[in-house]
Amino acid sequence: MKTEPHTGWRARLPCVSDHKHKLSAYLDGELDLPTRAGVERHLADCQHCSAECERQRLASRAVSHFVVPEVRIPDWRAKTPAARRHLHSPTAMMRRLWATRVSVPAPVAAAACLAILASVPFLLLRMPRPERTPAFPTAPEAASPQIKIVEVPVERVVVVRERVVTRTRSSYGNERTPGTRFRGGLVAGGAYRTGIGPDGSPAAQRVTENQEKPAVIADLAEFTPATNAQLRAVREPER
Amino acid sequence: MLTQEAELFEQEACGEDERLVARVCAGEPALFAQLYRRYYKRVFALAFGMTGRREQADDMAQEVFLRAYERLGTFGGNSSFATWLYRLAVNHCLNYCRSEHRHRNRMVGAEDATSSANAPGPGAEENIASALWQDQVQIRVRRALQALKPDARLLIVLKDVEGLSYEEIADRLNCSTGTVASGLSRARKLLARKLEDLRGKI
């Protein structure tokens, strides 16, 4: 629909209809039929929105000329060291930090700093002693490339080590009550794979259908003796 | 025979990416190269749309995959791997472009224009003229895109370059479709002002 641009005082009159906010969705075909019909009726009457619709159509058509050049996929291993150096360089990290900053009024920032400084001694006294937790394979490169996995169906696994829960939600998303003693790890039947863990010691890993966060039990002694024997019996022929 | 895009959809629907991720986390890091080859062009296209320069887009794509590799253990399976990777790429590109925008580093090199000149033959002059015009339009469009704020530019790239629907964009950006619609409307309004001189020529 071709229209002439407004001139003079008409050009300064804004459209007050709600339809002007739907022009983009109308051009992209994202409106349902009744809404689309309403926008079309409005465009037939409103020269301002009609002209705006044409301008947006031009912009969309222009971007369709944007051509992404053909690219040869570079070798993953060859480019990783340079990318890692750039990604973890102090300049890049400061840039990321600066890009995500939030503007706060100076008095609020000063009050927040004072509150944090005042609470430091209190937090130090209340801080729980860190406990050794199993190493999770969050960094794929930390796993040994020589790991040998043997599938072992195990009826029940109980991790003997206990700890005091401090968080309300475990790393698996399960709810916990702070202050209770929790037999940490995996308390369930299922299939397990044994092999060498990230730190070179014998390890077992649970295999599930919906494996959200595989946990590596770093120490086979954490299993019950019966489970240990079962796992060892399978591992022995592999040595 | 399926096209490449259709093949990608089939693999996503079957959860093959998620199985690959589980195997990488279980101690087979070499398998990550499969995911890299599968999604590199899509990430590159996003980075190129945001930066307008091939070299920068290449570097940014590498960084995105490196971050994905380092954070693979945090992939919870709540969304598909493609969506997770795309969100990572969007955030990385946005952070980079926001800082670049502040430093007013928006130069587009003429050497980045992709020439569409054909082989010589009858009407070769017209083809060359047409190709040069296409290059000029491309450069104008890229400069206009680079002049937008990164958030507006991202919406234009996701919709008009990548061809995603409003729902897909909202999913990638973790917002509502209404926000996408209004943001896109504002972005196109700004872009149209910068491309006013191309009216009637494309």
List the helices and strands and how they pair.
The complex is a heterodimer of chains A (239) and B (202).
Chain A: H1 23-27, H2 33-45, H3 47-63, H4 76-87, H5 90-99, H6 106-126, E1 150-157, E2 162-164, E3 181-183, E4 188-196, E5 202-207, E6 216-217, H7 225-235
Antiparallel strand pairs in A: 1-4, 2-3, 4-5, 5-6
Helix pairs in contact in A: 2-3
Chain B: H1 4-14, H2 16-26, H3 32-51, H4 54-70, H5 81-102, H6 124-147, H7 150-161, H8 166-173, H9 177-194
Strand content of chain A: 5-15%
Succession of helices and strands of chain B: HHHHHHHHH
Number of helices of chain B: 9
- Spell out the helices and strands of chain A N to C: HHHHHHEEEEEEH
Assembly state: heterodimer
First-residue to last-residue Cα separation of chain B:
35 Å
Shape of chain B: globular
Number of strands of chain A: 6
- Which consecutive residue ranges of chain A, at least 5 long each, have pLDDT under 50? 132-152, 154-173, 178-190, 209-222, 234-239
Which chains make the largest contact? A-B, 58 and 70 residues
Largest sheet, spatial ordering of strands of chain A: 1-4-5-6
The main pleated sheet of chain A reads as: 4 strands, antiparallel
Beta-strand percentage range of chain B: under 5%
Q: Give the fraction of residues assigned to helices of chain B.
A: over 70%
Q: Give the N-terminus to C-terminus distance of chain A in angstroms.
A: 79 Å
Major sheet details of chain B? none
Mean of the pLDDT scores of chain B? 77
